[in-house]
Every structure is written in structure tokens, then in C-alpha cells.
Amino acid sequence: MTHRESRRQTLYMYLFIAPWLIGFLVFALYPILSSLYYSFTDYDIIHPPKYVGLANYQEMFHNDLFWKSVVVTLRYTFISVPIQLLLALGFALLLNQKIPFRGFFRTAMYFPSMVSGVAMSLLWYWIFNPSIGLFNYVLSWFGISGPSWLMSPDYALYALMIMSFWTAGSGMILFLAGLQGVPSSLVEAAKLDGAGRFRIFLNVTLPMISPVLLFQLIMGVIDSFQVFTQAYVMTQGGPNYSTWFYVYNLYTSAFKEYRAGYSSALAWVLLIVVMLFTGLIMKFSNRYVHYEGGGRK
Amino acid sequence: MSTIPAAGPNASSSLTKPRRKIDAVSIASFIALVVTTFLMLLPLFFMVSTSLKSKKELLKFPPTFLPETWQWSNYKDIFETLNFGQMYANSLIIGILTVVGTLLSSALAAYGFARYRGKGSNLWFMLMLSTMMLPYPAIMIPQFILFSKLNWIDTFLPLIVPAFFGSAYNIFLLRQFFSTLPDELFDAGRIDGCSEFRMWRQIALPLSGPALATVAIFAFIYSWNDLLTPVLYLSSSDKFTLPVGMSSFTSSRFRIPPWHLLMVASVLAMLPIVTLFAIAQKRFVEGIVLTGIK
């Protein structure tokens, strides 16, 4: 590449990425840095911020609601994400076989994922209604009398977890795509060697789709660290703070109590935790994830 | 090769045996699928049927599967109870402008990353990828302060303008697509005296219809479902988007939630998404696979 050519390339690259670059500086980098600054201040959005050092971070450690939100969010994440992944993988394995009405089943499994956001929250708000809702009605077919779900501090979080399983269909589509990428020659070779279904799954299929699994694990964890809609629409964090999710806590302290300084500290903790988790999962997975055509990296 | 056409009686019996085993597994899988599909579709069925029930029938337990009287007027009442038509229009306007902005800015940036190797291009690309993991709640407070200084509170601008500055997922998706376009096309364009911008518009874009459609669909769905951002910025009820307005159903405004209207709202809210799915099922699935956005 000549000197002139490389200058031309640089020029055009910056011209084309300019919209994103401006957006990145204004809507991402500036907010990240300024929230770091705000996190060391006492700031109510109206009056100018006042520097208070580490006070916000110290307060966090003594704040019961902060700890409550951490526990709620971690419990939700560690229970619901693995089960969601297992369900999605299970559906994908079932639907990767030659089975009658396969197209119908795939669409039907994915369909619930289209009712996302507030519409889904409203629907399940009714489903979990203890006296007229669908969930306790279905349980009654099996002779179980269900709890009061969203109105019970013991069950509200579980209700939200159950709701999250309903959209396992979108994860299923990702796994299906992964499964279709498994070369049939490998499966045939394993069969010839006398491997059973389970062995083939464990030693051939699973390593081949491990990148998809890893990707979904990371995105699942990041997403569930940021649960907001369900808490806002269905429970308002209650009853008795049993669904007081981290982001709901952040939202309340920033936009109900106008404590932008303290909330910025919360935001930075979230940012660091998300980065840490992503890094940890990636590092841990190096040993287990198999990438086609390029060793382990 | 010589071992494969094993025509002897032993070989054929050992071949039929595993096939019978597969059949048993297939039957079990089929039954499992029927049961789970039934359970997955049950809430949707009740969503539609409840949306057509009368106020009195709502409080029956067990819930009736089909409405005793089909009350189609519920679909009219929702427009009177909530400012539903206005909210629907607001969501559509914001959604469509978000799609336009996302397509334009992401296609430009993606082209820049795919076609040019300039100084710092790797650094910017890595930074771009890392913003995919950036949680919105981590940046929403300074963004809010920024937009309030611009006097954009209670307008649609904070919901639309950022879309015109690219989004990492879509840039990544389009960049992958643009990278697969053959260099010869662009060389030919250059020889014919085409400007770089014209090559983007007249060579790259027309060849990327499917990828652009995928981006458009997912940008629309994201904007359509978003609750947190409009909750922060929109305060007067005539500016509410669908999710903001619908979330008021569960607030203390109603002593007993109007369950039938709540279901009507849910049905109507999923309508555009189902329509998109019906007309572009392949793009839809592709989008999920490429971006992992659910």
C-alpha cells in the first residue's frame, strides 16, 4: 500500500464511521466518564454536584436496599439463566430430529418470544393472579393448590423466573443454528465407532456448539443483571422488596429520589460487575469451548 | 469402501436394530413436544380469549376457555379507556424513525469498518464491539442530564436521535455482510469513476437487502418494546408510548385491573411484531442467529 493510498483509506474510514464515532463519544464515552465523576459527588440534578469522595460507595455497603437488590438479582440470574439455557437446548435437540410437524413446533416454541416487554408482563400478571389466573388453574389439574405468586414475598421472584422460561424459544433458535453447523460426518463417524446417543451428544455435539452456549450464557447473564420491565410493571419491586432488582433500585434512587451521585456509583458497580462476569466466563470457558478451525484461544 | 456394501444377513439385522431404537426415541420426543407446545401456547390462547370476554366473565374461576359471549366491543373500548390510539401512533412514529436512523448510520459505519483499513481502525472496531456489553442503566443518568440540558425532556428526541449515531450490534452485523461482497465490484466502480459514497449507496446497499431488512426488523422491535428509556423521558400522557401507557394498567389507578382490556392491549401490542414475523420469517430467524438479540 502506498503512502497516498493509506492516507486515502484512513480518510474514508473516518468519514464513514463518523456518525458512529460521534455517537460513541457523546452517548457512550462521555456518559461513562461523567458518571464516574458524579459517583464521587452529592448531586440532585438541579444544584451543581458537590465532591464527597468515596461517601457514595461507603453508603452502598451500609445500605440494606442495595444488598437486597444484589441478592435478588443474583438469585434470579443463577437460577433462571441455567434453566433457560437447558430448556432452549432441550427444545433445540428435540426439534433437530426428523419429526412430523417440525416447522409447526419450531414456530410455536418461538411464538411466545414475540410477546416481549410490557405485553408479556401484563399477560403474566393475569396468569399469576391467585384467584382467577391461569397458572393456579393448571396446577389444580394436578391437584396442587398454588400460592399467591406475585403477592407473596416468598414466591414473587420464582413467578418471574417461571415467566422467563416462557421465552426460551429465542434461545432455541440460536441452538438450532448451532446444531445445524455440526458436520454430519462427525456424527456418522462416532456412530460407526459404536457411540450411543448420549456419548455422541457429550463428545461431539456439545463441544461443537459450545461457542453458541458460551455466547448465550454471557448474554443471558448480562440481560438478567438488567431486569427492569417485570419489576416496574408487575411488582414495583415488592412485595416486601422480594423483587427489588438492581436496576429497579438504581432507577428509584436516581429518578424517584433524585440522588444522581449515589445512583452513578450504583451504575459504576453494575458496569464493573458486568465486565468482570464477562471476563470471568470468557477466561473460564477457554478450556472448554471449542472453536472450529483455530485451536483454543 | 469395500466394507460398506455388507449384504449379509448379519449386517442387515444389525442395521435395523438401531433404527427401531430411534423410533422409540422419536415417539418419546414427539410426545414431549406436544406437551410442551401445548403449555407454551396456552397463555397465548388465553390472552386472545380473555381479550374477548365480558367484565363479569373475567372473575370466573376456573377461567372459561372460550368467551361465553364474544365481546368484540372490548377492542373499541380500549381506545376510549386509555389514550390507546395516540400511544400506538407515538410508538409507530418513534419506531419508524429509529429504523431509519439505525439503517443510515449503521450502514455507513459498517461500510467504513468493512472496506477501509485506516490508522486506528482496529482500535475503533474493538471499542465498538465492547460497547455491545455496555449496560444502558450504567449510562442513563448522564445521558438524562445531557438531554435535559438540551431541553429534550418530554419530547421524542432522546428516543430517536441516538439511533442516528449507530448501534454496535447492527454495525457489527452489517460489517460482516459487507465484508463478503467481492472486491471486484468496487474496483469496477472505481474505474468507472464512482465516488466512494456512491459506491456505498449504489453497490453495497442494493446488494445488502436481506441484511438491512434484518437490522430494520430488530431495531423496530427493540424500540417498540423499550420501557425504561421512554419512562425516563416522557411525562405528559399524550406523548406516552405503548409500553409506558400499558404499564399504567397495573398501577393503583385501577382498584381491580380491567383484565379484558389489559389482554386487548397485549394482543394489539404484539400485532406489528407478528406481522413482521409473518412477512419476513427468514430474516427474523437470521436476525436472532446473527445478533443473539431476543
How would you summarize the topology of this molecule?
The complex is a heterodimer of chains A (297) and B (294).
Chain A: H1 3-38, E1 41-42, E2 50-51, H2 55-62, H3 64-95, H4 102-110, H5 117-127, H6 134-141, H7 156-165, H8 168-180, H9 184-192, H10 197-225, H11 229-235, H12 246-255, H13 260-285
Antiparallel strand pairs in A: 1-2
Chain B: H1 9-50, H2 55-58, H3 74-81, H4 84-115, H5 121-130, H6 136-149, H7 157-160, H8 168-179, H9 183-191, H10 196-207, H11 209-225, H12 228-233, H13 242-247, H14 259-279, H15 281-291
Helix pairs in contact in B: 3-14, 4-8, 4-11, 8-11, 11-15, 14-15
Characterise this structure:
The complex is a heterodimer of chains A (297) and B (294). With 297 residues, chain A is mainly α. Chain A contains 13 helices and two strands. Chain A has helices at residues 3-38, 55-62, 64-95, 102-110, 117-127, 134-141, 156-165, 168-180, 184-192, 197-225, 229-235, 246-255, 260-285; strands at residues 41-42, 50-51. In chain A, α3 (64-95) crosses α8, α3 runs antiparallel to α10 (197-225) and α4 (102-110) crosses α8 (168-180). Chain A is globular and about 70 Å long. The two termini of chain A are 30 Å apart. Chain B is built from 15 helices and no strands. Mean pLDDT of chain B is 84; it is low at 1-18. Chain B is globular and about 75 Å long. With 294 residues, chain B is mostly helical. Chain B has helices at 9-50, 55-58, 74-81, 84-115, 121-130, 136-149, 157-160, 168-179, 183-191, 196-207, 209-225, 228-233, 242-247, 259-279, 281-291. Chain B is 71% helix and 0% strand. The interface between A and B is large, with 98 and 94 residues.
**In what range is the share of β-strand residues of chain B?**
under 5%
Provide the structure class of chain A.
Answer: mainly alpha
Number of helices of chain B: 15
Stretches of chain A where pLDDT is under 50 for at least 5 consecutive residues are none
Question: Can you tell me the overall shape of chain A?
Answer: globular
From the alpha carbons, calculate the radius of gyration of chain B and give it in angstroms: 26 Å
- What kind of oligomer do you see? heterodimer
Largest sheet of chain B: none
